[in-house]
């Protein structure tokens, strides 16, 4: 369930550590790289999602590809379930290991090759997103998917979650940038998915693997497509008296057919949190909402597009629209946006965050709806989101030690989620299902669809040992291959 | 402490800023992991003498780079000091640490220790032993790196005394081993229009004690310094050691619970400036003697992350004619000195230092400017042991060199 | 069988499962002449299950039943200044959305916009277990659940029968232009032009290298290879793009209609193979393709340097000896060779299977456990 009060499992609740397994793993990776003392597992008992603490039984950290394969094979021999983890910045609890082995991939952080001519790179899963962009910048290239956690998150984690980010509006999500993968299946077999050097025929297994949230195996290397740096970039900040006006500007810009590189919105609560932080960006603290719009591409024609965006913002009632004068100002505007989630820690001790997506024409009414729901439950919602994609991130800060407030927060969140689903949206646009969105899967997928997803998972992992209990509710993973009529509950 | 810990939403943005995480690749050695350890210790789910807690809290450099990465404003430095203080109530620090803290807390013993060190330095024995493997060799290299033969030619500094009065914190290592840099500080302040005031009775700032969890020792030193600098009654208190400056700016926090001192501490803290801040506020006056050298700048953590001072030292270097300033990759990362860390956690310290040295080597600069004695000695020793043709100097020493003729002639 | 509703379609499939009757899934039949070896006598006709289900222009998304033709979609969207930026070869009034996604078909626009994989947001299909399954959704960003959308895209109906799909639309460029740039036939010349194109500060909507035979078929005859470049954007952008193209070679305007002609210019029943390597080796891939075309009367080539793909089209009439065609196609080539259309007898020989490993077979077994949906279409056999 969403937002359970954090608690550390007591000793008796923990699964008994398999000392023999820990010893065998240590024989592969070295003593230092196998953790099983409760005190040292604490650091691995949460990821970026607030509200949950789940302790692994063992945490193991291979340092090379061969070690990963050996570890996965050892886990397969032992029949041990495991949870792959990158930097632990995910926001759906996908990297939480509840009494099972945690397989850390952060040490596999080498960029194996950069092919600037073909704009591709081969990286290990633990390479930090921004480190890749930095490494290829000398070639005038960058890695386009830029989740807000890009300074910390890993490419392997991005692949698992099919991560997005502000610039995915124009450039596409992780899926659109992964060409091929080498994967250790949960049984230890190593397979290559996709074709790095030409077209792919057969099933799109790269497409299936990207976004599989660690349930299909462990990526050993990822071949990614790099994007060329645009010739010019224009970053605009528009501020509004009301959230509704901002939302209408978003809808108008999208409907105009312009494709900004990014189109982000922040409301007053978020603006204040950011402006109080070390990443203060100079957002107007008296605005009800700001839009951060970026247009990029060839210089020719760009300013005409900028003018169109400015016009749509003004028509919707923007108080002011300014264009960043230089790279420094641009960076500052973006840093504020990207660190907004982290800055929420300033507002309150606990936080729930959602990731629903709605059709872009529904943004104004949906934001009004969120506002109504928040008011009704007397909770404070901070909105900071990828408006151009219709990808909402309502954050509600609260005090988990106040049972009444906690109950109101969670009820409000459920209602917001339902409203987004009712508007034709989805429950997660980029954070993944993990354990946090698991209860909502039934709201958007039929039992038949969920069973089909289970069937796909079992192709990769028949024993369901990789990231057990995530993404698809277990009860959906019933006998799929029987004829429909033979299944219970089938109409 | 509770609210500080609660501000952490474990977003993980701190991971890549943390030198020990980057080096050791274990989240237990990251800010987020350590905050979780602290939280558990505070809540009682982890014993205060749990070896996991001790290992990973001890291994923290205290560089506070995580603070300048943290969107939530987790006061990591304060949390660390508080945790170490709690831990210190339950165990004894390693002998080396206790010896150093004892020595620095007592003016007489400090004077003797520094005099002996200078004597040893003069024998050239440190130079000979600086290549020895292990802690002794490193310590000798640190000492050898403080030598400044022929660098400082004294001149009579003159200024228009229009910028206010300044009392200089002389510091322990700065005055003991890098006295030349202190004199350079005084001269450059004068050239830039400040008038100097003595602050007799000043002691060690207490930073080493506070970072090691000896808050009682730190407070005692802080009180002594407050009295001394109240007596000096200068407009500013100038500190040229980043770690000491950070400490003095936090006296208000350190003594917040002492009714007699809380407000006085706040007033003293408010007067503290890094030397680069004072110089930049005055220009700084451009030097007249060209310094023909290539220099790169490494930011001391307690200047950049604790005091959030990024640009002034660079502005100081830019005021020096002839000096070629080249950027240093990873300048924002700790060098591994971290007070006495390099003596009590030598392996991690060396591992943190290694990429720093490589980055310096890559710049090809013959000088590395950095404004903190610990960093000067750590980097200086590392350069010497790695046979890199580069020397660590205080930015003010270079500015001072460019002022030599200014003082004699122009004014 | 030609079910008219989803319920009927599902029943048809369940009935086939009960009777273990293999099905050849057919929409409007434009891919039948690819002659893929499907071992089924019964046709499941799904082309009539058509119609746009939801189209809200402001969302730039469109949901349509699988039998909806690309022509119909183009008509609805162009009225709002939008398009589904997908131009697979073949008559748009016969190409359906379902078949395009199922076959992963794309055309020259893939240079800029990618393939069906990149623009399909969600699908509904009836699996070989008789279940109505949905993957993805109707919004532009979605990571809920495992990606069944990508799984059935390009699966040639072997995992399920597509019934509905949601696709991402784009705004039609306000100005378009198409330019033809003659280049010499020397490899160095081609490489120079390719590098120059790659260095442009913009990505054209489409870039096709065509050989003399393909030029002939497109009505822009000329003795040499040529790049045909499709430009789009606002007025100022296109003006600048034209200028920048001039640096590559002598460019002259051709009617933008050429792109529509390209979709229908291909001789019916031709054998088609796509050769691909990394884009940096495009000139070499083009040479290899030329070696195939040279061995075959009427052979044509066109390729996308940005994607590193060259398409070789060899006209085939009834009198052709399979053996000689095979000899032409089977030149040594160290890249990836994907066959699109072949005489029936050549499929097993040239493309025995696209099921490369246990996972492919496992996927097939999971979604079509009785091997009833287009069995053999990937060359696989039970």
Topology:
The complex is a heterotrimer of chains A (491), B (411) and C (382).
Chain A: H1 19-29, E1 34-35, H2 38-41, E2 58-60, H3 65-78, E3 82-85, E4 101-104, E5 111-115, E6 120-123, H4 129-136, E7 141-142, H5 155-161, H6 168-171, E8 178-184, E9 190-194, H7 205-209, E10 218-225, E11 227-228, E12 232-240, H8 243-255, E13 262-267, H9 268-275, E14 289-297, H10 302-315, E15 318-323, H11 327-338, H12 340-343, E16 350-353, H13 363-376, E17 381-385, E18 394-398, H14 403-422, H15 441-444, H16 447-460
Parallel strand pairs in A: 2-4, 3-4
Antiparallel strand pairs in A: 1-2, 5-6, 6-10, 7-11, 8-9, 8-10, 12-14, 12-15, 13-14, 13-17, 16-18, 17-18
Helix pairs in contact in A: 1-3, 8-10, 8-13, 13-14
Chain B: H1 2-6, H2 19-24, H3 31-43, H4 51-58, H5 76-88, H6 95-105, H7 107-122, H8 125-129, H9 134-145, E1 165-168, H10 173-177, H11 179-191, E2 195-197, H12 207-212, H13 215-232, E3 236-239, H14 242-249, H15 251-254, H16 262-271, E4 272-274, H17 275-281, E5 293-297, H18 301-306, H19 312-318, E6 323-326, H20 341-344, H21 346-363, E7 367-369, H22 373-385, E8 391-393, H23 395-408
Parallel strand pairs in B: 1-2, 1-3, 3-4, 5-6, 5-7, 7-8
Chain C: H1 6-19, E1 23-26, E2 42-45, E3 52-56, E4 61-65, H2 70-78, E5 82-83, H3 97-103, H4 110-113, H5 116-119, E6 120-127, E7 132-136, H6 148-152, E8 160-168, E9 170-171, E10 175-182, H7 187-198, E11 206-210, H8 212-218, E12 226-233, H9 235-246, E13 251-254, H10 258-264, E14 271-276, H11 282-294, E15 300-304, E16 309-314, H12 322-329, E17 336-341, H13 347-350, H14 358-367
Parallel strand pairs in C: 1-2
Antiparallel strand pairs in C: 3-4, 4-8, 5-9, 6-7, 6-8, 10-12, 10-13, 11-12, 11-15, 14-16, 14-17, 15-16
Helix pairs in contact in C: 7-11
What does this structure look like?
The complex is a heterotrimer of chains A (491), B (411) and C (382). With 491 residues, chain A is α+β, with helices and mostly antiparallel strands. Chain A is built from 16 helices and 18 strands. In chain A, the strands form 4 sheets. In chain A, strands 15-12-14-13-17-18-16 form a 7-stranded antiparallel β-sheet, with helices on both faces. In chain A, a hairpin with a 5-residue loop joins β8 (178-184) and β9 (190-194). In chain A, α8 (243-255) packs antiparallel against α10 (302-315) and α13 packs antiparallel against α14. The longest helix of chain A has 20 residues, at 403-422. Chain A starts with 18 loop residues before the first helix and ends in a 31-residue tail after the last helix. The relative contact order of chain A is 0.12. Chain B contains 23 helices and 8 strands. In chain B, α22 links the parallel β7 (367-369) and β8 (391-393). Chain B has 4 domains: 2-88, Alpha-helical ferredoxin (Fumarate Reductase Iron-sulfur Protein, Chain B, domain 2), CATH 1.10.1060; 95-142, no CATH class; 165-280, no CATH class; 284-408, 3-Layer(aba) Sandwich (Rossmann fold), CATH 3.40.50. With 411 residues, chain B is α/β, with parallel strands linked by helices. The model of chain B is unreliable at 407-411 (pLDDT under 50). With 382 residues, chain C is α+β, with helices and mostly antiparallel strands. Chain C has 3 domains: 6-171, 2-Layer Sandwich (Uridine Diphospho-n-acetylenolpyruvylglucosamine Reductase, domain 3), CATH 3.30.465.10; 175-263, 2-Layer Sandwich (Alpha-Beta Plaits); 267-345, Alpha-Beta Plaits (2-Layer Sandwich), CATH 3.30.70. Chain C contains 14 helices and 17 strands. Chain C has helices at residues 6-19, 70-78, 97-103, 110-113, 116-119, 148-152, 187-198, 212-218, 235-246, 258-264, 282-294, 322-329, 347-350, 358-367, and strands spanning 23-26, 42-45, 52-56, 61-65, 82-83, 120-127, 132-136, 160-168, 170-171, 175-182, 206-210, 226-233, 251-254, 271-276, 300-304, 309-314, 336-341. Chain C has an 8-stranded antiparallel β-sheet. A 5-stranded antiparallel β-sheet of chain C has the order 3-4-8-6-7. Chain C has a two-stranded parallel sheet with strand order 1-2.
